[in-house]
Amino acid sequence: MRGHPIALGVIAIAMALASSAAAAQSPRLKPAPGDDLRAVHASSADIAEGRRVAESSCARCHGLNGLSTAKGTPHIAGQRAGYLHLQLRAYQKRDKGPMESAVRFLRDDALVAVAAYYSSLEPARPVAGPAKPAPDSDPLVAAKQAAAACGGCHGEAGVTAMPGMPSLVAFDTKYFVAAMNAYKSGARKHEMMKSFAGGLPEASLQNLALYYALQKPARAQTPAGGDAVAGKKAAAACAGCHGEAGVSSIPGTPSLAGQDAQYLVAATLAYKDGARSDETMKAPAAALDERALKDLAAFYASQEPQAPEVRKPLSLAEWTQRCDRCHGANGNSIEPLVPALAAQRADWLASVLDAYRKGARKSTAMSAMSASLSEADVKALAAHYSRQPARAVVYVLVPGNRP
């Protein structure tokens, strides 16, 4: 293993390390400081010592059996010994807290022993629930179903063919959700939209926004009416927010390119007469007469809409495939320094993923992996791994390969 003189074999066990003949026959390891694999090769005497350390320093929070009953406190029974040892050493240097207080004055030999002890125990049982991600766990599946109710007015793929109805493609998700919440609250006056938006929770609005942002943009299939050439001059005053050709680079500001002209006229008039409240739109709208407004709308309707910079989210099945590359099949790591995730407490898994996502925990690999996780992704991953059966492992010395 990366040049280490000890070759490692992996054997699935229930509660074997303390009584394992291989472990009993292995020598007490006293390698140089910094060897992260000492806990992996601990003897039965080390494990007995680890139990004594656990009784005095760890059991109050993690239980002597390594199974936590407290929210936010992880199970550590059956966890990989090398990983536990590394984490205990790290807590000795972290900011003050319950863990730092518990391990601050422990010698490294004690940390090795207690890590080996908890690693030897029977892991937690998985919580009830499906072990595999549901086929419809992709957020776009649910969003597409919700979008079916919008197709009659806004077009099946969000490109309207009905004058006066806006296209829903080419909007950044931030703007789309804000607009829907404005209908929901009554800040935008439209009874049908208020009723529809009012029945959707925030997560559904986010999924719906994502669905339309990922559709292929196209110009509205409706007549424009005004003079697009004349409208281009009026559009100069709008370019700072909406983009020179109506393609916005500001997430909360809508793109206007390719939008239905009649809808653009109606929306601008709503800002002009106060039916829609937005101080940044009030003055520009007031400066436009009816002719100029129709020309402006015709100009924007003639422009080519562009897809916003939105990433298609990974499904839960795709996320778990990525996680399993390091943490083992179904979260059962076979690497001594990589933690197992299977049957872990979901609340703890979620808090740790959030910590990596927000930079509170430092790891180049984990930060890169978690940076694009949404809150919904974090909850789904935590729930998934809490439902996986956990398998303990013991790493044994292969005869003939001792140093």
Please state the average pLDDT score.
Answer: 86
CATH class call of the largest domain: Mainly Alpha
User: Could you name the ranges where pLDDT drops below 50 across 5 or more consecutive residues?
Assistant: 1-34
Q: Taking strands numbered 1, 2, ... along the chain, how are they ordered across the largest sheet?
A: 1-2
Total helical elements:
20
What structural category arises from helix and sheet content? mainly alpha
General shape: elongated
- The CATH architecture of the largest domain: Orthogonal Bundle
Instruction: Provide the CATH topology of the largest domain.
Output: Cytochrome Bc1 Complex, Chain D, domain 2
Distance between the termini: 14 Å
The biggest sheet, with number of strands, parallel, antiparallel or mixed sense and barrel status, is: 2 strands, antiparallel
> How many domains make up the coordinates?
2
Radius of gyration: 30 Å
Number of strands: 2
Secondary-structure element series: EHHHHHHHHHHHHHHHHHHHHE
The helix fraction, in percent, is 40-55%
Strand content: under 5%
| CATH homologous superfamily grouping of the largest domain | Cytochrome c-like domain
In short:
The chain has 20 helices and 2 strands.
How would you describe this structure to a colleague?
- By secondary structure, the protein is mainly alpha-helical.
- The chain folds into two domains: 8-129 and 315-397, Cytochrome c-like domain (Cytochrome Bc1 Complex, Chain D, domain 2, Orthogonal Bundle); 139-302, Cytochrome Bc1 Complex, Chain D, domain 2.
- The chain is 47% helix and 3% strand.
- The protein is built from 20 helices and two strands.
- Strands 1-2 form a two-stranded antiparallel sheet.
- Helix 4 crosses helix 6 (108-119) and helix 12 (228-235) packs across helix 16.
- The longest helix has 14 residues, at 44-57.
- It starts with 7 loop residues before the first strand and ends in a 6-residue tail after the last strand.
